[in-house]
Design goal:
Blueprint (H helix, E strand, L loop, with lengths): L4 E3 L1 H4 L3 E2 L2 E6 L2 E4 L11 H9 L4 H7 L3 H7 L3 E5 L8 H56 L2
Parallel strand pairs: 1-5
Antiparallel strand pairs: 2-3, 3-4, 4-5
The chain binds protoporphyrin IX containing FE (HEM).
């Protein structure tokens, strides 16, 4: 069961170079070393995301295609040890920071749609206005007839 090995955050953070690059996305650990040169978004972005601890936000922000998501399983090497019991105290502290940051980000992401929802309606307002004017004109002309 090598695929589902649990890694602590501090252990994963040791692998953030061009020659050895691991990523945490949705609490899964991926070894993308061999994928670095193939990544359409470039290798730098992956190495940088790897060093930051949790790459979930970066991955989601890009809006990766389903092709990208299906490719991920090929690089899966394990899962993130959420409790970080096997990690050091520093690792556990870092892990709680990541959780706190994720919570903050979730609230930010959740807030976005409320303003975006109005903007989504905006393109419909102009055609609606044209229809209303056309109907108004038609009604006025018919009323004006003796
Ligand atoms: C195992 C993990 C990953 C896989 C398999 C993957 C795969 C891909 C693929 C196939 C594309 C082409 C566009 C698409 O199909 O969506 C892409 C684009 C991209 N990826 Fe990733 N990616 C991974 C992780 C990440 C991470 C962690 C980041 C950033 C933190 C990232 C940033 C980008 C960027 C910036 C692009 C270019 C988007 C564009 O040109 O419009 N990727 N990736």
């Amino acid at each position: 069961m090598e695929e589902h090995k649990a890694f602590s955050l501090s252990e994963v953070s040791l692998h953030s170079s061009k020659k050895d690059c691991w990523l945490i996305i949705h609490s899964q650990v991926y070894d993308v070393t061999k994928f670095l040169e193939e990544h359409p978004g470039g290798e730098e972005v992956l190495i940088e995301a790897s060093g930051k601890g949790d790459a979930t936000k970066g991955f989601e922000e890009v809006g990766h295609s389903s092709t990208a998501t299906s490719m991920m399983s090929g690089y899966l090497i394990g899962v993130l040890d959420q409790g970080s019991t096997s990690g050091s105290a520093a690792g556990a502290e870092q892990s709680s920071k990541v959780v706190a940051r994720e919570e903050k980000e979730t609230t930010l992401i959740e807030r976005k749609p409320s303003s975006a929802a109005f903007m989504n309606l905006f393109p419909y307002l102009i055609p609606l206005l044209i229809v209303a004017l056309a109907f108004g004109g038609w009604y006025f002309l018919n009323k004006a007839k003796p």
